[in-house]
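B., you asked whether I could sanity-check this one before it goes into the benchmark set. Here's the sequence:
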Amino acid sequence: MINPWKGNIMNAITKSIQKEKLEAFLDQSEFFNQPLFEEHPEGYFALNLEGRFVKVNKVCEELTEHTKEELYQFTYEDLVYGEIENFHYIFNRIKQGDIQKYECTIKTKSHNNRDLEITKSPIIVDNEIIGVYGIAKDITQFNQQKMFLEESERLHRSLVEHSPDGIIITQDDELVYANKEASLLLGAVSKENVIGKNIYELFPNSKEKIMVEFIENAEKGMPSSLYEETLIQFDGSKIDIEMKIIPTIFRGAKAIYFILRDITEKKLNHQLMINSEKLSVAGQLAAGIAHEIRNPITAIKGFLQLMEGGNDYRKEFFPVITAEINRIELILSELLALAKPQLDNYQLEEIIQILQHIVALTKSQAILHNISIETQFNSKQAHVFCDENKLKQVFINYIKNAIEAMKDGGTITITAKEEKNYIVVQVKDEGPGIPKEIRDKIGTPFFTTKENGTGLGLMVSNEIIKHHKGEVKVDSSSTGTTITVNLPISKTIGVS
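And here's what the prediction gave me:
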């Protein structure tokens, strides 16, 4: 019969011997008795085979907020937070000779949680495991940052997935990500159908300088400005979009982020607004145009009456009659071109020639209001890349506003001069000016100082100039208003 007391006595003797060996080892160990152990930036400690702390450094006190004396009364189980069985398993593996590395959470003396990375290995003396040596590294801040980054990533992914704009990401010109809206814009059945496509296959103008330059800049870390582009859908149809190209990091590597916004409806509404304003301007010019046409018609009528009477100089009348008819045709052509809805038609044009045509078209209306139009053109061959009819619409609108502002007559002065890479055009009137309190509202849709105005004229004009990569500035005082338009000369820019 086995005596249980004998087994307990043997266990006690074994533990006592192991304890003595461990104490002797710790006392004699150079490492555990050097300043390096005490001042090490990580928590160093030793446990006996029962899991009780027998040696700790200063950092262990800081991590647990317990003194050394308090820690020597604890086992590791008294500090850890979580499933004790897991820690029992790990500790038993170490007692069998394994080295274990794991993460755990401990409760500090002030009842706060602290995340630690623990590395434990057996202490072996004379081929016998007599204790456990451990290193504790505080990873609380690291885990918090990791959790914050994961939450940020989840939030960003959610925002991208549910963005009303199409978003695609490319690496080496190949699509590696597309959100739902981008798939819809492309006419794809699912996002998976988009992945793997080459970015240049989606844009008919992709080989043009502007897009190539934007992509190259993004690869160098520079985002593009917002600009208009044409997108090819999977069925071959095309839609107008606004796009911005941004450098980013995707799955740990450099990538390019494309933000796409469908502006087909926006452009349609904008064009309808422009056409409406064209018709409005044409209607308001009708009185002056009628007066302008009446003069050559009266002259033609007079010559015809002379010819009917058998005048001997009738052959000399033909050139004059032809000139007057040509004058009528010019006026009618300008009016029809202004009112007729047209697609964008950008070409190199001489700005001075455009201004001269506008003056010819509006001069008769100015005369009806006792107003003269003077011009000072210091540039003769400045070319701009523009839609001629749209620029005419802009300056006719400015002149029309100037005429309406000068109730008592006066002079409208139109000047044009080159400054660096721009042509600067000014339209100056002698009206009462725009009150200071409403100047900032000028150009706002439906804000107008006219009884029957809509406020769309200046807004449309400003949009047209903006699309021509130009700028508009309004200066006003009690002696008149000056509108300044800066347009880039063709040698520096084109319109996409």
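One thing to flag: The longest helix spans residues 264-308. Otherwise nothing jumped out at me.
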